[in-house]
Amino acid sequence: MGKITLRNVQKRFGEAVVIPSLDLDIEDGEFVVFVGPSGCGKSTLLRLIAGLEDVSDGQIMIDGRDATEMPPAKRGLAMVFQSYALYPHMTVKKNIAFPLRMAKMEPQEIERRVSNAAKILNLTNYLDRRPGQLSGGQRQRVAIGRAIVREPAAFLFDEPLSNLDAALRVNMRLEITELHQSLETTMIYVTHDQVEAMTMADKIVVLNAGRIEQVGSPLTLYRNPANLFVAGFIGSPKMNLIEGPEAAKHGATTIGIRPEHIDLSRETGAWQGEVGVSEHLGSDTFLHVHVAGMPTLTVRTGGEFGVHHGDRVWLTPQADKIHRFGADGKAL
Amino acid sequence: MATQHSKTAARLMISPAVILLFLWMIVPLSMTLYFSFLRYNLLMPGMESFTGWDNYYYFLTDPAFSAALTNTILLVVGVLVITVVGGVLLALLLDQPFWGQGIVRVLVIAPFFVMPTVSALVWKNMFMNPVNGMFAHIARGLGLQPFDFLSQAPLASIIGIVAWQWLPFATLILLTALQSLDREQMEAAEMDGASALDRFLHITVPHLTRAITVVVLIQTIFLLGVFAEILVTTNGGPGTASTNITYLVYAQSLLNYDVGGGSAGGIVAVVLANIVAIFLMRMIGKNLDA
């Protein structure tokens, strides 16, 4: 079980209000990702749920019980830290067994759970090593192992992949998603990387300056961003946001169109522009096109579309994929 | 750096310092060794003669020697225990955020800057004196008989004085070690259900072992040679109750004018110090690896 409910939760550090007031429901078994730019309060929110910070106001419920004043150990949550926070003087085995030893569990039961976790995480051959002798990915797995042996109500991940190199990050992303599918335990995952958010989450919570901008499945956020912030944050490359007369034509203050929803032609189209930088990725090409009266537009096209700096092209936005935003930044 | 020419130049340039240091050590050592085999008494100048192992025999069979050896061990171990335990506790305390932290830290370090002679005299005359001392005043204020520390518990008093001097050093080293402890590790242990005591025993203490090793090694070297504190407080007495090996060597050669016997004692002290050093390196030196 791992249903977590936040009611009217606030966090202030002295005068500075980090989280103004926030409500959130996390259902049992969900994979929830908190995503937002640096300093948006997502790690603070996670630490509030973990109990490592005190809430200034409001209530945190875990499985229907009020956990607001509970110490971290009593909440039944396990956390994986950004730095892994392994105990350097203990072997991998002792690291994983530490929470069980602290819970005064029977030695045979500890042995069974540790070897089971080691099997799941491919750590069986490393049990007698110290963290200093492991690679980054292995350390990460030990940290996850230390979390899963406790069979917690929910896992908390605080940017766990940010210290890994790109290739390993993709691997670990898959492993964590698979782990979630086999354990079916609630997971809360904090990241600033929207690719991680899109690929892993059942539900994404987009945070900005301590406020929730939008909650929804990855595709909901992609298709129907609730406001300009979400529109600009979700999707890669970023959505093109256009103001002025072009937006007024659609009855909005700002319109947004994703790079993949603009059709490109050499002959005709709605907007004429001049190609600036083009980024060839092999499978895709991202063109940065200068159009009079608009900011530079990013356009995504197939890898084989041969254009050069200074070429004239025509752009046509797909009419049903245009997002319209009002003066307050909210979607119309 | 690595050419033959630069290597030769480097050796040539560093050699004056090395040779000077080497002579500085080897000349007194060999002279001590030489004197230790002579019948050499300052009251009978010009009568020096070779006596073989006699000086060693008399020094080692002197009842004062076994007393001094015990006192040296008690002094070193006593001060180490007080400074390490007290240093860990003080470091934990100073690591907490509180108002005026900077000033308090400077104050805590202060005793280390007081010269041993001065601090021992301050302790002897201002605190431990049975008539005018602060402790005597307090005892009288409570209606108790003043305790004459330096004559009734001389070794314990000296241990107290020396520990007071070395506590700041231990605290300083342990505090810096404590500050390098990863905060996330503590939080992880907290999430793992470790109580404050468990966190101290399983996370803090293992983290501090290396710093404690450094404290023990450095302090042992200096504590084997404690001299000034004994000279200005008890003069090694009453009897030999607070005489350590260093003080015994001094008493032998300069109070009894027996340079030969004192030199033999000096060589014995060097041998003992090396035995201690070897054991220390064996026992705890491995903590310093990796």
Structure description:
The complex is a heterodimer of chains A (332) and B (290). Chain A has 332 residues and is α+β, with helices and mostly antiparallel strands. Chain A has two domains: 228 residues, P-loop containing nucleotide triphosphate hydrolases (Rossmann fold, 3-Layer(aba) Sandwich); 89 residues, Nucleic acid-binding proteins (OB fold (Dihydrolipoamide Acetyltransferase, E2P)), CATH 2.40.50.140. Chain A is built from nine helices and 18 strands. In chain A, the strands form four sheets. A six-stranded mixed sheet of chain A has the order 6-7-8-3-9-10, with helices on both faces. A five-stranded antiparallel sheet of chain A has the order 13-17-14-15-16, with no helix packed on it. With 290 residues, chain B is mainly alpha-helical. Chain B folds into two domains: 26 residues, no CATH class; 253 residues, MetI-like (MetI-like fold). Chain B is 73% helix and 1% strand. A two-stranded antiparallel ribbon of chain B has the order 1-2. The longest helix of chain B has 33 residues. Chain B is globular. The mean pLDDT of chain B is 88. The chains are: A alpha+beta (332), B mainly alpha (290). Chains A and B meet through strand 6 and helix 2 of A and helix 9 and helix 10 of B. Chain A: InterPro entries: AAA+_ATPase, ABC_transporter-like_ATP-bd, ABC_transporter-like_CS, ABC_transpr_MalK-like, ABC_transpr_MalK/UgpC-like, Mo/tungstate-bd_C_term_dom, NA-bd_OB-fold, P-loop_NTPase.
